[in-house]
Amino acid sequence: MAADKEKLDFDVIIVGAGISGINFAYRLQERNPELKYCILEGRHEIGGTWSLFQYPGIRSDSDLFTFGFAWRPWVGNMSIVHGSIIRQYVEDSATQEGIDKKIRFLHQVSSMSWSSLSNTWTLSITSNTTTNIFLRSRFVFLGTGYYDYQKPLQASIPGIDSFKGKVIHPQFWPSDLDYANKRIVIIGSGATAITLLPSLATNSAHVTMLQRSPTYIASLPREGKFEAIISRALPMFASSRIIRLKWILFSLFMVSICRHFPRTAKRLLLQRTAKLLPPGTNLEPDFVPSYNPWEQRLCLCPDGDFYSSIRSGKASVKTSKIEAITPHSIKLTSGEELNPDIIVTATGLKLCTAGNIAISVDGEEYDISHHFAWRAAMVEGLPNVVLSWGYSNASWTLGADSTAQLACRLLTRMKKEGFLVIVPRMTPEDRETLKERPFLALSATYVKIGGDAFPKTASTDPWRPRSYFWKDLAVARWGDIETGMEWLR
C-alpha cells in the first residue's frame, strides 16, 4: 500500500464515529499502526446512534457486557443502561486510545468515487465551514450503520396528517416536548415502543401501546448475581472478561434454543410473561406473538419495567389495526376508539447501506444492493471497501469486531505482499449455482420494507450471511481469504 503514497491524504478513511468506527480505529492502531487514517463523522460528537436518538428512556437492547468493546470491557454493574451512558462510554474509550484526535466532526460524506488509474478513492465531503472538501485514500471502512439518519421510516397510517395533536417520531424527539398528564398512544411494538412505554408512563396520564401483532418481551435483571459475585471475587481485568464471555455464551445458547426448540422456547417465554402481568390477565390477543422466538428480534426490558407499568395501571397494550385517524381520535378496526393528545410513531427504521453515500467505480454508478456480500464485510466489484455490520440476534459490537479484525488481516497482507487493490469477484459458476438468502434473517415489518437496501447473500461460502460470533471471528483470523477475492498489485 506504499505506492503513490505522496498522492494520498490517508491510507485508510473511516466513515462514522459510532461503535463500528471507533472499534475499527482501535484495531487499526493495534494491528496496522504504520497506516495513516482519519475518521469522518457527520455529527458534532462521538456516538452514532447514541448521539442521534434522544427519546425518553433510550437504552441498549443488548447487554452492555457484549455491546461494550473487547479491548475495553464494560465494568458497570448494570447490563442495560441509558443511551447517554453508552455514548459517554464510547467517547471515553476513544479518548483513552487517542482515537478522538483522529476524528473530523461535522464532515458529512456525500459521495465517493474509485479510480482504477490511481487505485484510490476520492471522497467528497460537506463540512460546517466548507461545502466541497476532497480527500483521497487507498482504503475505506464504512462504519455507517444500517439505517437512514436523516429520514425515519414513514409508515402508512390512514389519516395521520389530519390529527390535531402532536405526532412524534422517536428518531427526532423534540427536547421541549411536554407530555406531563397527557394521553399518549405509541404505534408500534418493537424495542423503541417497549422502551418508551415505561419511561412515558411515569409522568403522563396514560400510555397505550397500539400494535398490529404482539412481540416477545423478556425481563432481564439490571444487575445479575453472577456478575456481582465475580466482580467481588476477582480483579477487574479478569472479572470483566469472564462476565463478557458468560454473556456471549448465554446469547448463543438462547438463540440456539429458540431456533432448535421453538415450541419449548415460546412456552417458557409466555409462562414468564404471564407471571409479570397483572393477575388474571389473558395473554391473548396482546401478548402471544404469531411467530416463533427470534424470527424477530427478542425485546428486553430491565427488571420487567414494561410489565410494571401495566400493573400500575399507567400503561396498557391494545392489539388492533387502525381504521382511520381523525383530528382527535384513533379509530380501530375492532370498533374501539382511542383519544390521545400525542401519537408516537415507533414503527421502525428506514434501512439503508453505506449511509446513503453515492458510490461510483470508474465513473459508473455503483449500487451495493445489486451485488453479493463477501464474508459479510466486502461487496463484489467494490474495491478496497469494508462495510461494518453487526448481528440481528446478538450485540452489534460482536459483528463489528469480527469485521474489523478481518479488515486488518486483509490490510496486513496487502502491505506484506505489495498488493494495492482487493476486490471480491463472483465466478459465472457461482452465479448459476448459488441460492440467494436474506441479509437479515428477521421477519420484522421494517426489515421486509427496507431489506432490499442491503447487499445480497447466498447459500455458499464466501457469500453466506453472518453466522455466529465464534465462527465469524475464526474466519476473520484464520479463514479462507482467497476464494472469491481478487488481489491486484
Automatic annotation (TrEMBL):
Gene3D superfamilies: FAD/NAD(P)-binding domain. One of its GO terms (molecular function) is NADP binding. It holds the Pfam family NAD_binding_8. Keywords: FAD, Flavoprotein, Monooxygenase, Oxidoreductase. SUPFAM superfamilies: FAD/NAD(P)-binding domain (SSF51905). Its cofactor is FAD. It comes from the Eukaryota. The lineage of its organism: Eukaryota, Fungi, Dikarya, Ascomycota, Pezizomycotina. This is Flavoprotein.
